[in-house]
Write a structure and sequence with these properties.
The protein is mainly β. It has 7 helices and 40 strands.
Length: about 725
């Protein structure tokens, strides 16, 4: 029996010239294709897939119209986040206790394809898609993520862009907000005969909420334009579609890694020191993807050819001419004469006097590409009297990063940065490249009320590192990794409304091409056991998980350590255990007003189970039982709504517990914690019928701000209260 994957997400407006039967046929073809872009479906029935998976659909995303992926993912159980800039420009996302640093240990996909700048060679997610163009978010954890590599420890995040509509459809969405916020978003698409198209554009900008001493822009501008073209080649026997997707995006943000001392944060959390006045990120991203789908009731195959190009310039404060890093100064600004002097230079209260007080600004210029071809088969059949769903896939992938880092010296003079007159110094010039072949095989066998899923993933990785600095051509390395990663999971239906899920799989995170072979990939065994209930009104899911790490792997980057070494480190044994709870219920208060309620709770405890010493500055001298950094034990999200025919109002409140800044002793920020934080966001909208709708949003209703991180250089604030008003017209 073929599983049902009906998604029902294409809400196309039907032109009067198209007959109902023709539309139904086209929509069936589109839904069949969409199934292979977005896996999970909207349904009021019990989901019977094994493994923990969460879908946030278009209706949920529309409630708050968040631009920030962090705010969206707080509603997903098992997600741990370290905020950085308040806008989600460069998110730090982890699942089930793995490090959230630059989201490098989860697989981030757009429309089923890896979207990171260089997912194998340099997985740190300095690029992240604009959420305004995303109409569904999928999170896969545990055995459910074994088919999405290369990282299999934590899980996968898939972002689905808007589909080509089957009939004429469009939208205009504009908004204004505090701190100079402006949004313009629109799309238009149609299908005429066998050819369909969609064009979508987004512009976002803000003046920023931080206040630079002496004045200056601390905001950003972002743009994204996307075009899709779909052609129907279907026959009576097969559904067959070809789709071309083209995308261009850019960002200029006056952001910085330089934070504050705790004392300065307590006085003015949104302050920025004068030394950061030239800090800026500037990037462009280009995407090409050609997809082909063919299938019928018994099988289907989806093949994608893709290419992503990403180029960035990240100009920011690196340190001082004397070699001292700002984190040491800001952690103890009055501890000694040197720290006092350098702190005053950072704030602009003191002019640079000698070479040790020269402020070093670095441009971490990098170019990336990521390209490949992947194909995936679903086959439904009966063998030995049992129903089987075979899912087989293969991918050939190449990615590369070229670093061309430079540094310039600046003097602090009367509160302004002035060049020290020396030539720009080249600091890093290297290349890391990876060729990877990955395959997976998954067989789901159904016997009465029991479904068992057997899976295996193979990763075959060949990598190259080349130091391209002058006179360093002999500094290079080639290496290979070959590994098979098994998984086993199942779901048992206790009734038509409830069931038990369980699973075990092997976790893996590869090392970068630059690392010596003595640094081993991350390795773990991961277990989960859960319960699911859905009677059409109440939906509940509870999952307990346990990660048994043989070793962790961490990288010293600027965002993690405040330096550019990119050296990786192994830990000893560690474990993460936790519980994920999620419940949803809609109460019909009157004939015309509903009261939807959802609750998400996550308990996570991570610790090292064996002591060791490490030069990684978030570990240091580790003793058995020391906690993992940036991992809150308790997180709770409560979402309340009032929904009527013409209006709705929603309030989402989240609690994030305290987090350790470092695990052991002997490193900067040893024993330091962030405080627990509770934040509420509000949204309301009113339907003007044929004239569109208006909406109001307030992020951080109560205006509470806390330190969300002290890395890389000092205390960083959560987002303050911000208000927005907007108008949306859809046709």
């Amino acid at each position: 029996m073929k599983p049902t994957f009906k998604l029902g997400l294409v809400a196309a407006a039907i032109a009067t010239s198209i007959s109902h039967s023709a539309f139904a046929e086209d929509k069936a073809k589109s839904d069949k294709y969409i199934e292979r872009v977005q896996i999970l479906g909207h349904t009021d029935k019990l989901r019977t897939e094994s493994g923990a998976a969460t879908l946030i659909g278009e209706e949920e995303l529309e409630k708050f119209k968040f631009d920030d992926i962090n705010r969206i993912l707080y509603s997903v159980p098992g997600v741990n986040i370290r905020e950085e800039d308040g806008f989600g420009l460069r998110p730090n996302i982890g699942f089930r206790g793995v490090t959230p640093e630059r989201s490098k240990k989860i697989n981030i996909m757009e429309d089923g394809v890896l979207i990171g700048p260089a997912p194998y060679s340099a997985p740190a997610a300095y690029y992240f898609p604009m959420m305004n163009k995303i109409n569904a978010v999928e999170v896969f954890k545990g055995p459910a993520a074994i088919k999405y590599g290369p990282n299999t420890v934590a899980g996968a995040l898939n972002l689905t862009t808007r589909h080509v509509p089957d009939a004429k459809e469009g939208l205009v969405d504009v908004a204004l907000g505090s701190n100079g916020y402006k949004k313009a978003h629109g799309y238009f698409g149609d299908t005429q005969g066998k050819l369909g198209y969609l064009v979508e554009g987004v512009h976002l900008q803000s003046d920023g909420f931080k206040k630079l001493d002496g004045g200056g822009d601390t905001g950003f501008k972002k743009n994204d334009i996307q075009a899709k073209f779909k052609y129907d080649l279907s026959s009576k026997s097969y559904t067959q579609l070809v789709e071309l997707k083209l995308d261009y995006a850019d960002e200029v943000s006056n952001e910085t890694y330089l934070g504050l001392t705790d004392a300065d944060f307590a006085k003015s959390p949104n302050r920025r020191y004068r030394a950061s006045q030239k800090d800026k990120m500037d990037w462009t991203h280009k995407q090409f993807m050609l997809s082909h789908f063919i299938g019928n009731d018994d099988f289907d195959v989806t093949t994608r050819v893709y290419r992503n190009d990403f180029e960035r310039s990240w100009f920011k404060v690196n340190g001082f001419g004397g070699g001292i890093k700002p984190d040491r100064v800001l952690a103890d600004p009055t501890g000694n004469d040197t720290n006092q002097r350098l702190y005053q230079v950072l704030t602009g209260d003191k002019d640079t006097q000698d070479s040790s007080e020269v402020i070093i600004l670095g441009d971490n210029a990098r170019t990336f590409f990521s390209q490949g071809v992947q194909s995936e088969l679903y086959w439904y059949t009966e063998l030995f009297g049992l129903d089987h769903t075979f899912n087989v896939g293969a991918r050939f992938h190449q990615d590369q990063i070229k670093r061309r880092h430079t540094e310039d010296g600046f003097l602090m003079k009367s509160g302004n940065l002035v060049s020290d007159g020396n030539e720009t110094k080249a600091t890093t010039s290297n290349l890391e490249k990876t060729d990877a072949i990955s395959v997976f095989f998954v067989d789901t066998v159904k016997y009465n009320d029991l479904s068992l899923t057997f899976g295996v993933r193979g990763e075959f990785i060949d990598s190259l590192y080349q130091n391209q600095a002058p006179n360093k051509q002999g500094d290079w390395q080639k290496k290979s990794t070959r590994i098979w990663l098994p998984s086993f999971s199942g779901f048992y239906e206790l009734s038509k409304q409830s069931g038990i899920l369980f699973g075990i799989h092997e976790g893996f995170v590869p090392t970068s091409p630059r690392q010596e072979p003595n640094i081993k990939p991350e390795s773990s065994l991961n277990y989960e056991l859960g319960y699911r209930f859905n009677n059409g009104k109440v939906e509940i899911e509870a999952v307990a998980f346990y990660h048994d790490f043989k070793r962790l792997i961490e990288t010293c980057s600027f965002s993690a350590c405040g330096n550019d070494s990119n050296i990786q480190f192994n830990s000893s044994n560690a474990e993460v255990r936790g519980l994920e709870l999620q419940g949803k219920y809609t109460l019909a208060m009157t004939d015309s007003i509903d009261f939807p309620v959802s609750v998400t709770y996550t308990y996570t405890h991570g610790e090292f189970t064996q002591g060791f010493d490490s030069a990684f500055n978030q570990w240091g001298n580790i003793k058995k039982g020391d906690p993992l950094p940036y991992l809150p034990e308790n997180q709770l999200t409560l979402n309340l709504g009032l929904v009527a025919n013409d209006w709705q109002a929603n309030l989402i409140t989240r609690y994030v517990g305290k987090m350790h800044e470092a695990s052991g002793t002997g490193v900067t920020l040893s024993g330091v914690e962030t405080k627990a934080l509770t934040v509420a966001d509000f949204s309301a909208s009113y339907q003007l019928h044929e004239n569109g709708s208006v909406y109001l949003k307030v992020d951080n209703v109560f205006g509470k701000q806390e330190i969300v991180s002290r890395r890389p250089y000092g205390a960083r604030p959560s987002k303050p209260r911000q208000g927005f008003v907007g108008y949306q017209y859809q046709f």
